[in-house]
Amino acid sequence: VAGCAGTRTEDRIKQATAHYQLGVSYLNDNNIQPAYVEFQKALEFNPNDKEALNALGLINLLKFEDFPKAIDYFTRALKADRNYSEAMNNLGVAYEKSGKFREAIDAYQRALSSPVYRNAEKAFNNLGRAYYRMKKYAEAIDAYKESLRRFSDFHPPYYGLALSYNAVGKYDSAATSLKRAIELDPEFKGDREKFVTEMKNKKLLAKGDDEQDIEDLLEILKY
Q1: Distance between CA atoms of 62 and 54, rounded to whole angstroms?
Q2: How many CB atoms lie within 10 A of CB 4?
Q3: With pLDDT > 70 as the criterion, what percentage of the chain qualifies?
Q4: CA distances to 34, 93, 129, 140, 157 from 97, in Å
Q5: 163 near 181, Cβ under 8 Å?
Q6: Whether the model pTM is above 0.70
Q7: Largest Cα–Cα distance of the chain, in whole Å?
Q8: CA–CA separation, 81 and 76 (whole Å)
Q9: What is the pLDDT of residue 38?
């Protein structure tokens, strides 16, 4: 009997994995709704599938902008594996998008507490952004620099440094950081005119802090 139960469990995990992989395939093609359905099917076979839970969190975070639901999925993923640093980092982003910056900072720091977290440069960049939102500019600059120590050609921290240096009146450093960001950003590859055009297009849809960031970056470009 125990052997039969074990076989059924293995079969359910295999089916969950198959649905998860199909969901990833849909997601890679930016086909969001079928991906969402497949990740939900994965949970029907394995409610503790941390990767499916994390994927559903990401869809709610980045595509649906349903931040409370994203927080719920990331929290469930962390209940399945409390050392799942990727989900912890994503939880921080969801808190940040909800305006809960202290909770976001705590989540990023917990993600970074794992010595085997492969994407530490992303969490440090996110940490810098959360500090920047709280106007803790020295801490933000330190976090962005820590990100670059782990991946020197990672372009997002340079945008963050540009904004942070600008906020404290270090305009030369702000201009240098923005120039480096545009050079490293694969979308622009150093093309300043393309950067300006894209920022103006993004500003049409941006709100709040994001809109202000765009205005500040365009101003820094004039230095």
Answers
A1: 12
A2: 8
A3: 97
A4: 25, 6, 11, 17, 18
A5: no
A6: yes
A7: 74
A8: 9
A9: 98
Residue 185's φ and ψ, nearest 5 degrees, are -65, 115
What is the token pair recorded at 210?
A: 């994001």
Average pLDDT, integer, range 101-119: 96
Q: Are 84 and 50 in contact (CB under 8 A)?
A: yes
pLDDT at res. 4 = 47
Say what the pLDDT of residue 9 is.
87
Q: Scan for tokens 């902008």, then name that residue.
A: 65
For the purposes of burial, counting CB atoms within 10 Å of the CB of 139, is it exposed (0-12), middle (13-18) or buried (19 or more)?
Answer: middle
Residue whose token pair is 């977290």: 117
Residue given tokens 């920047």 in the structure block: 132
In one letter, which amino acid is 218? L
**Range 33-51 average pLDDT:** 97
Radius of gyration of the chain (CA): 20
Amino acid residing at 16: A
